[in-house]
Amino acid sequence: MAACEAKPDYTPAELLATEMQYFPSQHMMISCGCVPIDPIARKIAILRDTVYHIIQLPKGRKNIGEDLLAAALRETYEETGVRFSALPLKVATRATPTPDMAGSFVPGENPDITGGLLNCEVSSVCSYPCIYTGAFKLVFWFAAQGNSTDVPVEGTKESWEENTVLEWVNAHEAAGMMSFKVDGDVIEKVLSDMRNSGYDI
């Protein structure tokens, strides 16, 4: 997806003409997930649904009061049975750097985007109507690291997740295996962030 075109010299009329959408809380759903990767083995953990024959990444709804990253890591653990931690990468972000970060990175051409600074910010976001509930769904994706040799813990899945099987696959093949194209895009974004952060992957 192309980035929004920067227009620093916009007029008040153009600002007021911006198309916006409104969703009350009961009509929206926030979900969080991870691209769970073993950086050393260069493998990504995926979930294969043996009933619906869908291959996707782990994700799920956030709990009330839960941080987005915490929700992503919790859901990934529950669905895979493997513990993952946030993977700091040089994610280009429009999140505002704090004053104490000054001097720890080289500003890029666009002063509104911070790049070159290791962080655990959102890597990408997907949105679509939830087919089950009809709610507008936002999925926040993060990069997470784990060990592909760890034995999954039993009993972490919800009842409706019991038909999913964890598989570790080659990082370069994972995107092409996804049933949903956006999941593949999410994977490619994390791999790109890893390469920009010095990983040989």
TrEMBL record:
<dbReference type="GO" id="GO:0006167">
    <property type="term" value="P:AMP biosynthetic process"/>
</dbReference>
<dbReference type="InterPro" id="IPR020084">
    <property type="entry name" value="NUDIX_hydrolase_CS"/>
</dbReference>
<dbReference type="InterPro" id="IPR051325">
    <property type="entry name" value="Nudix_hydrolase_domain"/>
</dbReference>
<keyword id="KW-0378">Hydrolase</keyword>
<dbReference type="InterPro" id="IPR000086">
    <property type="entry name" value="NUDIX_hydrolase_dom"/>
</dbReference>
<dbReference type="InterPro" id="IPR015797">
    <property type="entry name" value="NUDIX_hydrolase-like_dom_sf"/>
</dbReference>
<feature type="domain" description="Nudix hydrolase">
    <location>
        <begin position="27"/>
        <end position="191"/>
    </location>
</feature>
<protein>
    <recommendedName>
        <fullName>Nudix hydrolase domain-containing protein</fullName>
    </recommendedName>
</protein>
<dbReference type="Pfam" id="PF00293">
    <property type="entry name" value="NUDIX"/>
</dbReference>
<dbReference type="GO" id="GO:0006754">
    <property type="term" value="P:ATP biosynthetic process"/>
</dbReference>
<dbReference type="GO" id="GO:0004081">
    <property type="term" value="F:bis(5'-nucleosyl)-tetraphosphatase (asymmetrical) activity"/>
</dbReference>
